[in-house]
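--- STAGE predict ---
source: upstream dedup step, 1 unique chain passed
mode: sequence only
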Amino acid sequence: MSTGPLAGVRILEFAGIGPGPFCCMLLADLGADVVRIDRKQGHQAHFKEARFDVASRGKRSIAMDLKKPESVATCLKLIEKADAIVEGFRPGVMERLGLGPTPALARNPRLVYARMTGWGQEGSIAHAAGHDINYIALSGALAGIGPKEKPMPPINLVGDYGGGALYLAFGLLAGLVHARHSGQGQVVDCAISDGAASLMAVCYGLYASGAWSLERNSNSLDGAAPNYDTYQCEDGKWISIASTGAPFYQQLRDIAGFDDPEFDHQKDKAHWPSLKAKVADKFKTKTQQQWCDLMEGTDVCFAPVLDMSEAPSHHHNRSRNTFIDIEGVTQPAPTPRYSVTPGAVRSPPPEIGQHTESALTDWGIAHAEVQALAAAGAI
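--- STAGE serialize ---
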């Protein structure tokens, strides 16, 4: 039984990769009934076993052959019961399948039709292939990330998940609010390139004001400042320092012992290279744990740099149950947290087609019709 804030919300997800599935994981974590339409005879992309496909947790899977007219007709019946659709195909694919916004909204005028693409539904390169790094490159974000020598891909967090999945979830939920007030559904055109550009809003403001340089590794928040960077410790491990405000910077100086008068020039970029060298030398005099013992829990703005094997065991993450274990797979717990309607992972990631019959009948497809679909090879 779902108890999250989205309990009772029905989401029909058309299987894809990247931001769409992650968005639907977030919705499922918060109680939405997410039913995913998988390709019949499909496979778990990138994963040896379904349990490793963390972005599929809490969902149910129906396996269909969307080239069969019976499957398309069944999807339209499911759409009648859905609050929202999530699809991540290139522009025009859903239309060619007969499942585009026009027939979908004709069946369900309150439907929120959420579309996830890299470049958007329209635009001069909307139909071109691309991946995360390309989308953030066009937004201005990638140019500012990395060392002076070259832009550096920041995994795929800025594009796929930050500019994509989170904006898709935000847009879908805003559409649901509007639909519930007005009875009117709509299409949500979510492009990763748009979302990545939106994430850069503050940086664009700083650049326009003259407070942000286009040169990488030359600004206060991109690793150039001595008090905002990562530093290696005596044992080869790393720590992060973000002592930006004056009180935090002073506490850093007091605890680390930076009594050299040059440290008075915190905001003078001319001193940054020299100060960074001194900070780096200091942090190499102790192990990561020794610095944790000195700085953790203070207002230095400090944290050890932990990898995925270490983060779940950190005492703060344990005290908040930030990570959970599902079928032997350690993974982040649902977030954000709610005082009245907490989210939860209701089930592990499904095998493709695991819930074909049960999900169809739960959504109002008669048992006899399900049998007919199976006989026709549609499911």
